[in-house]
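Exercise 7. Given the components listed, write out the predicted structure of the assembled complex. Treat all entries as one system.
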Amino acid sequence: MTPEEGSEYDRLFYPFLFAGGTANVEDVLAQVRHSTLEKCRDVVALRRKTFEVYGNELVAAAMAMAQAFTAGATLWAFGNGGSTTDAQDVVADLLNPPFPLSRPLPAVALTNDVAVVTAVANDVGFDNIFARQIIAFSRPGDIALGISTSGNSTNVSVALAQAKQLGLLTVGFAGYDGGKMANAAALDFCIVAHSDQVPRIQEAQATAYHALLEAVYTLLHT
Amino acid sequence: MQGNTTHSDLRALLATRFERSCAVPQAFFAAEAGRIAEACWAMARRFHQGGRLLAFGNGACATDAQHVAVEFVHPVIVGKRALPALALPNDTATVSGLSVDRAGPSFVPQLAVLGRAEDIALGFSPDGGCSNVLEGLRVAGERGMLSLALVGGDGGQFVQADFDFCFVVPTSDPLLVQETHETLYHVLWELVHVFFEHEGLLA
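Answer.
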């Protein structure tokens, strides 16, 4: 492999690959082991930082959500790509809670229905796939939970703004510097995993929303 | 809700969860880095042969199957090639139409119809007790697929099964298992690509 062929990232992290094609498998495996441990250290540091900065925000969000659920709220969750699966995971944890003695709470993932998603995307536009469903399904007092690793996903921001306008509690999870979500007036709470590595952002967000749900269930028990 | 849980009670609860979400992966990856590297290499060779990743799991793990699949198909790191991956729980008509037992739907029919010998089967079970996932991986292995189990708890029957790789996150908390699995499959995806940079290792 010549230096022209790899990305800057590859040249930085896997320099042996560009040393004239002489890498042997033991060298590559050693590098992969090293990278594995480095990625683990990164996510651990990001989780610690996220709690340090957003611990109080998570407590406040849990209190507001517990109050909303007590009053009969349904939670609507949404995101794109890997964040979609995290939104679906939040919903799975509410409908079938992994905490002892917890009762299921109403929640729906807005990517579940491919007919609706493709219909809105085709007829109106991708920016509206979640907002349209918020309009169709939600009631004032419900909870909208949007996830975006960049904080800049238009369809997530549009849906959160729509939700706020309709009187929902709005909760966002973002990464990087929080993007547009960080300072959006439409968001009651916004938890940011401050990193530029998308996999690590998602892993730290998973811990943050798991902790949030545990706090919500704890409040509902007491 | 009677409101007798204080702000500091909740903050302590969150602090405990975040700290466990750090300690569990630290111990897991320190112990497993060598086998993870081997798994990346084995997966890269399968992809090089034209194999696909077929991922499956029940409940919340179905979302992990979808998550690992989208990472491979649409890599977030610019310049990485798209690799073929399917999440078997995505086909709700097929899954809900198949026999559903106590442990969940059977993934065997999809593996039998869609699967090829060069594919990679990746099954999730948070407590090692998902008999349908165990059975899916067994069938996949019998058909020549590379078999990877991502499990938790004591690993249940997955530990004794003759899978190519069985990664056990040894905690009974399904959320910690899931978060550690998420880092694990992200790492598998990120580092499979290292081997693609060096085709001589893929034969």
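Discussion: The two ends of chain A are 62 Å apart (CA to CA). Residues 22-221 of chain A form a domain with the Rossmann fold fold (CATH 3.40.50.10490).
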